[in-house]
Every structure is written in structure tokens, then in C-alpha cells.
Amino acid sequence: MAGKDVMPVGVFTSIGAGLGAGIEAVKEMGVPTVQVHAPPPELRTEEHAESVKKQFAEAGIQITLVFCGFPGESYESIPIVRDTVGLVPEDTRDERIEQAREIADFAAALGAPGIGIHIGFVPEQTDSPQFAEIVGVLKGLCEYCKALELAVHLETGQETADALLALLQQVGRDNLGVNFDPANMILYGSGEPIEALRKVGHLVKSVHCKDATWAAKPGEEWGAEVPLGQGDVGMDSFLRTLAEIGYDGPLTIEREIPEDPERQKAEIGQGVQLLNDLKAKIL
Ligand code: MG
Questions:
Q1: Which domains does the chain have, with CATH numbers?
Q2: pTM over the 0.90 mark
Q3: Of 278, 167, 181, nearest to 229 (Cα)?
Q4: What distance in angstroms lies between residue 100's CA and the mean position of ligand 1's atoms?
Q5: What is the pLDDT of residues 29-81, one digit of tens each?
Q6: Can you tell me the distance from the alpha carbon of 221 to that of 187, in angstroms, rounded to the nearest whole number?
Q7: What is the whole-number distance in angstroms between the Cα of residue 180 and the centre of ligand 1?
């Protein structure tokens, strides 16, 4: 397709948090976009933002999202995620809201268009006071980001497509969208990803290209994360469905193997190849 690079390939990387592939590896992969993990607090300065901005600009790589992460979060098991991840756990909520705002300031200084966040396990009962509290938290964050001209993308995974729709509808802010991660739907056992994508498609502003296989007991135990194209997502139908719903944003590969950076780099490289091949076939 001539003109605009529709669905440019990207990698989820790090600018100081110790995760992801790192800018040197990203340069080697030749991708035009990245999402980045928010750096730790001591690196969320204007100076650091300026230097990161310059590095990526010189490499011709666009930063499409800055992802929030908070100390104390653990993805060890589904119950531990429930207790530790995002803005849902009450003990850490206020301090994390403050940190999310700092990350938004950093994203704005970086010239990124938005922040991404795992909100956590949102209560199932949409008429409960707990649900209303999360709606309030998100409204506040969206308003803060709006003033900085930033979008807020909620990562999918812990909830069903219907629950996510209910949440976004109640928050009702036009800078709130979805970062759709099809593998999370499988890993958490929260629904068939392509069907979910069709339901929330109009709200999808960014995606993670990640693959996984279903657990024997979905929702109780983790599925397994596997290299792109080797799991149950069906990358061909994922891309076809994205095209069908009119999505033209980046395809950001998320593959983190902190214990084996070489394998990580090789698998991301294979993922880039797979996505480019599928794009050539489908778009
Ligand atoms: Mg993800």
C-alpha cells in the first residue's frame, strides 16, 4: 500500500526499567515504532525525556505509548495479579494515581501521544460502589491526561469484553481507549480474543501482538505465553480482524524474556518478520 504505513510494526521496549529489548536492539530490528515502559521515578525528569526523545528521533523511531508500571506489582499468578496490579488495589491506589500522573507528565515531555495502563481486576458488578470508585479514578486520570493532550489506553486482559465496554461507557471520556492484547484474553481466560476484538473494536487505539495457549483451567491458572504465531490467537485472523474494524495504528510486539535477552531478541525478530509477511498478504 502506498502512502501512510498502515499498521506500522513496533516493539514494546524499555528506557530504563530493565525490561524489553532496549533501543540498540530495536534499531537493529528496523521497526518504525515503539511503546516504552515508563522509566523508574528517578529517571522521570525533563532532561531524561529530552535525551530519550532525541535518541529515538535520530533513529527515526516513533514512540507511540508510554506504559505505566508500579513498584509492588507482580504477575506471578492470577490471584497475585488481582491483589497487586494497577489502580484497583486500595492500599496502593492513591500513591499510584500520583505516579501515573508523573508518568503522564513524562510522556508529554517525550512528545508521546498517550499512556497505557493495566487498571487491574475491575469488580464484576457494574452497579457496585467498588466499580463506581474505579470509574471515578479513571475519570480523574483521563482529565489529567486531557490537559496534557494525552490519550489513556487501558490494557485488556483481566476482564471480559463486556465488562471493559461497561467500564469505558461509564467513564465516558473521549481520550480513553483500549490497548488490545489478544494473548491476555487467553492467558487470563477472559474470552475468545477475536470475538472480543470485534466487540470493543471501535475503542481499540493500540494493540499488543502477543501469543499464548489456553490453560487447562482458564481463569484459574495461567495459559502459556509463546512466540508470536505459535499460540491460539491466530495472528492471521487477528490482523484480518484489525483491518476489518478499520484499525490502522501500530502493531506492537510484546515479548519479554528477562532471563534470556538473546532468545528474546531472536523471537522478536521472528515476530517482526511474521507481521511484515502477514501485512503484505492481508493489507
Ligand atoms: Mg500486553
A1: 9-282 (3.20.20.150)
A2: yes
A3: 278
A4: 17
A5: 899 999 999 999 999 999 999 999 999 999 999 999 999 999 999 999 999 99
A6: 8
A7: 8
